[in-house]
Design brief:
alpha/beta; Isopropylmalate Dehydrogenase; binds nicotinamide-adenine-dinucleotide; 12 strands; ten-stranded mixed sheet; amino-acid biosynthesis; globular; IsoPropMal-DH-like_dom
């Protein structure tokens, strides 16, 4: 197949980790006979330095025309003195908005080889953890009317059936590619938006008889994530609950350099990026962990390009490299030897070819 992939390296470690993900995508391209057209686009601090703004119009236009966007990370101390609206991180919000990325997906996986990195007890993680948190990203309380009146303030939480339906469909579709279980998280015992949420999720579920659905209140879900995380496959939830639960799910894996993410729009278009930032403290040193970005590229293959087998190949290659004991500095135990960013990328590439 042919696909156009917009590549935004960004700042800090962005260029180093994206180069490794592109290396891996090129290995997939070669092995399976695909044709990927990569186009480098500017955003973030790099764009401010070169063209004076964090999100040039041409980047938005070309990102919109591509099948998917692969992003490193943006931001860094060099631009920290700029006022809020001019800072590199604004580029992310601009991209999410112009591409209408309403569905955020964050998998949290604990690899057998890295079980000890989890802050949870072995007795809890030994069942294996492979959770995909699907968070509604453009509605809810973060986007509702907000006001301060003297000594009081309010934020309005509102959802329409359409908003709930489209994110639910993403969750059920994703579950079909996984273990076929959706846990919808809400607060339907208290919130009217949650009652509409639950009703709508149930309606969507009727079109997916092959997927099991259960509902949990958000307070219970946050407890279950730390006492019995292996019960989860796909967690579907609204914006604010998802913000909190996706961070909680990430942290139980214990390794920020390994966590990818996807933000999807209608159809297949999406933006893929590691959950970590630009790590300016280690930029340019060839020691950053590229695996989160490589795994983000695997999500791109799965969700935007519909290349499930190829995505699985990349996931397996990462697992194989970890099983063989290779570590970047961030995931190496004290005294353990470690390899560079580019060596890690090449090892994953080698497993694929
Ligand atoms: P960060 O995620 O960049 O770094 C936190 C810590 O984790 C640092 O010690 C860093 O060295 C380490 N780390 C992060 N990614 C790593 C990797 N792949 N391999 C090894 N170690 C890694 O968070 P921060 O320090 O709070 O933010 C730094 C900059 O990144 C800021 O300008 C922030 O605004 C920006 N940021 C960007 C994004 C994004 O582009 N999506 C997200 C978060 C933060």
């Amino acid at each position: 197949m042919e696909a156009s992939i917009a590549v935004i390296k960004g700042d800090g470690i962005g260029p180093e980790i994206v180069d490794e993900a592109v290396k891996v995508l090129k290995a997939v391209e070669k092995k399976y006979g695909h044709e990927f057209h990569f186009e480098a686009l500017l955003a973030g601090g790099a764009a401010i330095d070169q063209v004076g703004e964090c999100l040039p119009e041409v980047t938005v236009e070309k990102a919109k025309k591509s099948d998917a966007v692969l992003l490193g990370a943006v931001g860094g101390p060099k631009w920290d003195t700029l006022e809020g609206s001019k800072r590199p991180e604004k580029a992310l919000l601009g991209l999410r908005k112009s591409l209408n990325l309403y569905c955020n997906m964050r998998p949290a996986v604990i690899y057998d080889a890295l079980l000890s990195a989890s802050p949870l007890k072995d007795s809890i993680t030994k069942g294996g953890i492979d959770v995909l948190v699907i968070r509604e990203l453009t509605g809810g309380i973060y986007f509702g009317e907000k006001k301060r009146q003297g000594e009081s303030a309010y934020d309005v939480m509102s959802y329409s059936k359409d908003e709930i339906r489209r994110i639910s469909i993403k969750a059920f579709e994703a579950a079909r590619k996984r273990k076929k279980k959706v846990t919808s998280v809400d607060k339907a015992n208290v919130l009217e938006t949650s009652r509409l949420w639950r009703e709508t999720v149930n309606e969507v579920a009727s079109s997916y008889p092959d997927v099991t659905l259960n509902h949990l209140y958000v307070d219970n879900a946050s407890m279950q994530l730390v006492i019995n995380p292996s019960q989860f496959d796909v967690i579907l939830t609204e914006n604010m609950f998802g913000d909190i639960l996706s961070d909680e799910a990430s942290m139980i894996t214990g390794s920020i350099g390994l966590l990818p993410s996807a933000s999807l729009s209608d159809g297949k278009k999406g933006m893929y990026e590691p959950i970590h930032g630009s790590a300016p403290d280690i930029a340019g040193m060839n020691i950053a962990n590229p695996l989160a970005t490589i795994l983000s590229a695997a999500m791109m293959l799965r969700y935007s390009l519909n290349l499930d087998k190829e995505a699985e190949d990349v996931d397996k290659a990462v697992k194989a490299v970890l099983d063989k004991g290779f570590r970047t500095k961030d995931i190496a135990k004290e005294g353990e030897s470690w390899i560079s960013t580019s060596e890690m990328g090449s090892l994953v590439e080698g497993e694929i070819l």
